[in-house]
Specification:
Elements (H helix, E strand, L loop, with lengths): L10 H17 L7 E3 L4 H7 L1 H4 L4 E3 L22 E2 L2 H7 L14 E6 L2 E6 L5 H11 L12
Length: 149
């Protein structure tokens, strides 16, 4: 999974990364898919980055909109579709294109590296504020967080 910032802001690097991953997948006979998140509309991606889309198995385009519900698996807001782009993507993601997300399906993973805490996943609404409040109640202030602009 490739996510942001915005991967398509570095189109040459993204294409090189995807080409390398596809070559590795084929040479090593691996079965992983290439999914990418983008805040750009799908029509813009198809018009400006068709060659890069051809290297992906699926994409979740469109900007995150906080006021919209989180109704589907792996999407931050309801306007973001899951678009399979390859045979592998269609086989892997077909059942999730319209599948609603279960209330308990949002999961976060935390890891510590070099004095920093990294949280990976798509949190439910209010989860990051709850993490911050819990840390603060124990005397830990979170600084330089990416979820606050």
């Amino acid at each position: 999974t490739i996510s942001g910032g915005e991967p398509f802001e570095q189109p040459d690097g993204l294409r090189a990364l995807l080409a390398g991953l596809r070559a590795w997948r084929e040479a090593a006979h691996l079965d992983f898919d290439l999914l990418c998140y983008s805040g750009y509309p799908l029509a813009t991606l198809r018009r400006k980055h068709a060659a890069t889309l051809a290297l992906l198995d699926a994409i979740i385009p469109e900007p995150y909109v906080d006021r919209l519900p989180q109704g589907h698996a792996w999407r931050g807001s309801a306007n973001q579709p899951l678009v399979p782009l390859s045979d592998r993507g269609r086989a892997r993601y077909a059942e999730f294109v319209d599948a609603p997300v279960a209330a308990d399906a949002k999961r976060m993973q935390a890891t510590v590296e070099g004095g920093r805490v990294w949280m990976i996943g798509i949190p439910g609404r209010g989860d990051m504020a709850a993490v911050e409040a819990l840390c603060a109640s124990r005397g830990l202030a979170l600084t330089k967080v990416s979820w606050r602009r």
